[in-house]
TrEMBL record:
UniProt protein name: DUF1161 domain-containing protein
Superkingdom, natural source: Bacteria
Keywords per UniProt: Signal
Signal peptide: 1-19
Database matches in Pfam families: DUF1161
Length: 74
């Protein structure tokens, strides 16, 4: 029973953290580190308002879903 209570508590904390969202600069740095580790070069990551990604691929959402991080090659 104690394990169940702890598990529910951890799930609640994780859900709250995800709902709040990460700061955009922090998430952008994490995405850049993953791309660099895979040997990807010649790209840019841009923080834009949600829905404003005209050209490029949305690779992340931050600040409570109000902004997106867009990946562009070249």
């Amino acid at each position: 029973m104690k394990k169940l209570v702890v598990a529910i508590g951890l799930m609640t904390l994780a859900g709250t953290a995800l709902a709040a969202g990460k700061p955009c600069e922090e998430l952008k740095g994490e995405i850049a580190a993953k791309l660099d580790a895979k040997g990807v070069s010649g790209y840019s990551l841009e923080i834009v308002d949600k829905g404003a990604a005209a050209d490029g691929k949305v690779v992340g959402s931050c600040e409570g879903g109000t902004k997106e991080i867009v990946y562009k090659r070249g």
